[in-house]
Amino acid sequence: MKILIIGSGGREHAIAYKVSKSKLTDQLFCAPGNAGIEEYAACVPIGVMEFDKLAAFAKNEKIDLTIVGPDDPLVAGVVDVFEANNLRIFGPRKNAAIIEGSKAFSKDLMKKYNIPTAAYETFDSSEKALEYLKTCDFPIVLKADGLALGKGVLICNTLDEANTGVKAIMLDKQFGSAGDKLVIEEFMTGREVSVLAFCDGTNIATMTSAQDHKRAGDGDQGLNTGGMGTFSPSPFYTKEVDEFCQKYIYQATMDAMKAEGREFTGILFFGLMLTKNGPKVLEYNARFGDPETQVVLPRMKNDIVEVFEACIDGRLKEIRLEFDDNAAVCVILASDGYPEHYEKGFIIDGLDKFIGKDGFYAFHAGTKRTADGILTNGGRVIGITATGKDLKEARSNAYMAAGWVTFKNKYMRNDIGKAIDEV
Known about the structure:
This protein has twelve helices and 22 strands. By secondary structure, it is an alpha+beta fold.
């Protein structure tokens, strides 16, 4: 098969790595790709939102399957455009991707179908939101309704903080049009867990668990980011938790979307909070998580292209997902100053040390190949992933490998996976 991947981040690099291992893959392309993806795919200079150009390329190259990585093109309807051109594509249609595109939609869906989540209210007026805050217990969570690169969530400990947050999201448009609507949500406490799942519109098959670290600084301090590192599996995601989630969250969500006439085919990401009152949904995403994908896919035994095909054809029940009995940890190497102001364009050294080393991966996120070498080209630069027989070994390996890579203004958290020490 000739396969096209849409995207340019660490998630897409991990997908490209896995797709390149498939016995069904003949030729692999990526639009627009990055310096790391070039190892597996021919990179094509087409942006992820240039749907007509992407579809034309897929037609001209006789692409057999397209895989969509990021959220923006899915929410904007890239799948619908490809299907209108009789092109085979993996991902949810626009009317299903709304589960990520609008937090108000997803919260209303959960309320309607009794899927466990935090109590909430939705506002399209800052005045009404500010009035409501006077009645709230703190801390409280503010969520921009639309897509905000994983950063549109503010945890406010006081009324003053919350008032400032409402103004930043709704009036100052800190997250652009994503803040036209606001969800104010009860603050939940517990362990966070991420579970990715393949979906075929009716059936769902969950992957191994993972845990992200969203805050920029050690000890979960600082601003929210797109993710500073992950580990898999989560020791807090027990058999009992899984049994509850399979029945009351995962299949219930698939059934709810189908009942709404929004059959979901693609990857559904469940962000969960394991509260003292049981697991609850923090958020849904309509695609592979980043950086969760970087620890989940290296542990997956299945031929991923076979799974993609089964999802599109409604044959997911035929697939039994299998994962190695090991662990993986990913440490994000970022540009100092991320997620706010940072410089880019610095030479990256040490990537050659990963060549031929089994179980060690450097998944490029914000990189660019030039005549001088590979340069930093984003806030999150590279995800260093390593496997091990257990989480402690994987963590040790990941931090060792993170030391192999150097560039000016390199920044990373030093406590990714530290929670496993408490188990």
